[in-house]
Amino acid sequence: MARVYEFAESWVVAAPTGEVAATLVDLEHYRAWWPQVRAVAKLGPDTAWVRCRSTLPYTLDLVLDAVSRTPPVVEVALSGDLQGFARFTLSETEAGTRLDFAQRVTVRGALALASYAAGPVLAWNHRRMMAGCRAGLAARLSAVGR
Predict the structure, then answer these.
(1) pLDDT value at 11 more than 90
(2) What counts of helices (H) and strands (E) characterise the chain?
(3) What own/partner pairs with CB < 8 Å and gap ≥ 24 does 62-67 have?
(4) What is the pLDDT of residues 16-73, one digit of tens each?
(5) Is 95 helix (H, G, I), strand (E, B) or coil?
(6) DSSP code of 128?
(7) Is there a contact between 40 and 27 (Cβ–Cβ < 8 Å)?
């Protein structure tokens, strides 16, 4: 049994595109600024193991493999509890950098089964995860810019 989820959202952060990209490609330091990232281990130059947990009491065990580390596209392939990709497309704006986020993942097993009944709750949980990303990234980049 499998279930596919697609997410997309956009926001602007008050920082230059180069600084935003440098923060996003630095996988091993996500825990320092993204509250829902609970543990990270660098597995190679372009690969990291990540454990993340949003509001629901369920921890995802993921491996992130960099697909593109060069702006305007910063993308990772996801494996582990989720299979798919997460991509940020960056563009300069007068206010800083616009981030267009896109993610497509497949879940299998118990999580896929649960998602048929709890799909809206899982989507809400993802929105909470991304709210942590937005706030944490903005705070991290604000500290870098000082």
Answers:
(1) yes
(2) 3, 7
(3) 64/27, 66/25, 66/27
(4) 999 999 999 999 899 999 999 999 999 999 999 999 999 999 999 999 999 999 999 9
(5) coil
(6) H
(7) yes
Cβ atoms 126, 107 nearer than 8 A: no
Strand partners, 7: 103
Give the three-class secondary structure for 145: coil
Task: Tell whether the torsion through CA atoms of 29, 30, 36 and 41 is positive or negative.
Answer: negative
Q: Do the Cβ atoms of 35 and 54 come closer than 8 Å? A: no
Residue 76 in tokens = 């990772």
DSSP annotation string for 14-76:
SS-HHHHHHHHH-GGGHHHH-TTEEEEEEEETTEEEEEE--SSS--EEEEEEEEE-STTEEEE
CA atoms within 13 A on the CB side of 145: 15
